[in-house]
Amino acid sequence: MFDLDKFQEIWQTITRNKTRSFLTAFGVFWGMFMFIGMLGIGQGFENGMKRAVSNVATNSMFVIARTTTIEYKGFNAGRYWDMSQDDIDILEREIPEIKTITGMTMYGSHKASFNDKNCEVSVQGIDYLYYQIDNQDITSGRGISFLDVAEKRKVCVLGNGAADQLFPQGEDPVGKMIKVGPVYFTIIGIVKPRGNINFGGDARTTTFIPTSTAQQLRGGGKVVDIIAIAVPDNIKIKKIEDKVRNILRIKHLISPLDNNAVMILNIQEMFLMFNYLFIGIASLIWIVGMGTLFAGVVGISNIMLVTVKERTNEIGIKRALGAKPKVITRQIMMESLTLTFIAGFMGMFFGILVLVSTEQITQSSDSMFTNPTISFTIAIVGTIIIVLSGLIAGIIPAKNAMRIKAIDALRDEK
């Protein structure tokens, strides 16, 4: 049960020297404030990074054709080569680990216009399987379908940024016809990207059309610029990387030693690298934060030692009047705990307040810093750390207080 009189006595003892108590408590306050602040900042960068890549399946890879760098079978180095739908069919047939495989065909940047409004867009050809690798939010209408690709329809899915520029009055774009470059397309959907990974430009101003339509407009047959591959969650992309490279090298007469000609972007490894990075950052934050907080705790322990020394007369008289050792120990420990808890709790409170304010500022932006908050679990852990710190800070002063005897008090009084 809470004893108000005891608390008032402890508080009066703590505030007996206000300047000393404030300076000592500030060390704990600053340590907890820095600890909470660094945790929130680290979480903010982690959230922002994860949001930036949240649109791409974590178990995916992208294959891109690049110029050769080694002479091979009569072909000079620096040769350009193209991938095609035939390559997709071969890879799917030869590599059973593949779950989803699809091609992307770039149609370049063009001016899109509707009535008197226009904007610059990048045009990409995709098929219905693409959405299994690039997770996009269709906010209106629908995405590219199997029939759109099979019939080479002149339809498009418009990025939300381009839609806002072409239809600024809030008019529903679905069903409207826009001109992209020299070709007219019917808008079948509006897409809002989840992340920032996109090939060929900003996903918000990208116009997606059927792959077959893009190939027809380019006059390049079945050429695809990028092959996207996804595997089941229990399979590592690294396992099939060499298989993909070898199959493409053999088919296109590329040297087995040419590692530049077939470029592979392994998203799975990228996510793994991010996870290791965030684990390292979190570990560093805990080490620095705990070190700063420990410095504050040492300060409180030292000031409590000085306080015990100054109160030799008081403590000795209490011992002479029959005060039990546990009473003296409990009083010193409670004083240390109270000072540490108040300073630590205030540091946590202001740290969370700063993080909440930062969240309000950054929540509307698309920066790599998002939602810099701490979890309820971390708040509980922080509270436990504060209590333990207070108890630890009072252990040595409490032991010193136990050594004080009545005779020492009388000698000190003289």
Account of the protein in words:
The chain has helices at 4-14, 18-52, 85-94, 146-150, 160-166, 211-218, 238-251, 267-310, 312-320, 325-362, 376-402, 406-413, and strands at 60-65, 83-84, 100-114, 117-126, 136-141, 155-159, 177-180, 183-193, 206-210, 223-224, 226-230, 262-266. It is of the alpha+beta class and 414 residues long. 52% of the residues lie in helices and 18% in strands. The chain folds into two domains: 4-53 and 272-413, no CATH class; 60-268, no CATH class. The longest helix has 44 residues, at 267-310. Helix 1 (4-14) packs across helix 10 (325-362), helix 2 packs across helix 10 and helix 8 (267-310) runs parallel beside helix 11. The chain is built from twelve helices and twelve strands. The model has no long low-confidence stretch (mean pLDDT 78). It is elongated, with a radius of gyration of 34 Å. The strands form two sheets. A six-stranded mixed beta barrel has the order 3-4-9-6-8-7. Strands 2-10 form a two-stranded antiparallel sheet.
> What is the SS-derived class?
alpha+beta
Query: If strands are numbered along the chain, what order do they take across the biggest sheet?
Result: 3-4-9-6-8-7
Q: What is the terminal separation in angstroms? A: 40 Å
Main beta-sheet annotation: 6 strands, mixed, barrel
What is the molecular shape?
elongated
Q: Which regions are unreliable across 5 or more consecutive residues at pLDDT < 50?
A: none
Rg estimate, integer Å: 34 Å
Mean pLDDT: 78
Number of domains: 2
Kindly state the percentage of residues in helix: 40-55%
Total DSSP helices: 12
The tally of strands reads: 12
The string of secondary-structure elements, in order, is: HHEEHEEEHEHEEEHEEHEHHHHH
Strand content: 15-25%
